[in-house]
Amino acid sequence: MxxxxxxxxRAIVSLLVEDGRMTAAEITRRVxxxxxxxxxxxxxxxxxxxxxxxxxxxxxxxxGYPVIGDILVDVASGRVQEVAVQLARLENxxxxxxxxxxxxxxxQVCARDxxxxxxxxxxxxxKVEGVTRTRTVLVPWKLKDVYQWDIPADTASRRNxxxxxxxxxx
Length: 170
Fold this sequence. Notes:
By secondary structure, the protein is of the alpha+beta class. Helix content is 31%, strand content 18%. The chain contains five helices and four strands. Strand 2 and strand 3 form a beta hairpin.
């Protein structure tokens, strides 16, 4: 169920995406027409409702893992969840998600060099029981990452559409 957000919420989230440590006072100064107390309340509501999560994000390149690989993983029938959990436990894995289409799982790994990436794909991911096939794509750069995603502007205009819950109906 979607949580209703307005333009002020979106502005607050956008500023926190820019800098997760930005103070409520700074947000108030930049958003304007909203009190610092209201900003703190809105942040708490956005966190509590699961709209945002404030956390540190590690840049793998900054800590010696400049090679990023996306691995598409095919899994034996009925084993997708089990394999996904095993892969998520691996230290070099930064992302695991189910997928629909050409593969069962999408996995991102961080490596020190291409040799380590190859070893991780062939000797670690490929040997997990239930994995039937892997395909790897080297990711030389990223323009935008998931933690940089903003709430779309049209979200505030959506009202009681099917599958959505209004906050004031609670």
